[in-house]
Amino acid sequence: MRRFLPVLLVLPLLACSGHGAGGLPTPPPMDMGRIVRPATPNTALAAPAGFTPTPDLVTRRYDVPPALLFAAIRQVAAAQPRTFPAALYHDRMQAHYVARSRIFNFPDLITVQVNPDATLVLWSRSVYGRSDFGVNRARLEHWLAALDAVLSRPVPGGPT
User: Fold this and answer.
1) Does residue 24 belong to any structural domain of this protein?
2) What is the 3-state secondary structure (H, E, C) of the chain?
3) 99-124: per-residue pLDDT in tens?
4) 27: in domain
5) CATH number of the domain within which 97 lies
């Protein structure tokens, strides 16, 4: 065990030393209906009412086509500081991001899923640490407010 201790200590530092999504494996597509939340308080989930597991924030059905909703939430993600794309699965309308903390460069993972009924699931979680001090929930609240702002603007080429 003592021989492996230095390796175990270095692994988190490698992920924290990466830039963007660097230092972390590319996330595979997720089945958002099979999310298993850890016992630690370092995740936040935004999803429609009735979703399992129970979301921290309830999202609504959006009155836009799912493809437009997917483009809008990706626009929101792209505008966030220190947030980088990690994987994009157009066929599933699912995107994965890495957000880096300002001071220590700790990575958080955010997965976005637009469903065919124009509902949205966002799951934000810390890679390291037991508590996130509310950062993941605040992130999702901010993204949802930003999404409402993006969707309230006229769509280029759409009706005026």
Assistant:
1) no
2) CCCCHHHHHHHHHHHHHCCCCCCCCCCCCCCHHHCCCCCCCCEEEEEECCCCCCCCEEECCCCCCHHHHHHHHHHHHHCCCCEEEEEEEHHHCEEEEEEECCCCCCEEEEEEEECCCCCEEEEEEECCCCCCCCHHHHHHHHHHHHHHHHHHCCCCCCCC
3) 999 888 899 999 999 999 999 999 99
4) no
5) 3.30.530.20
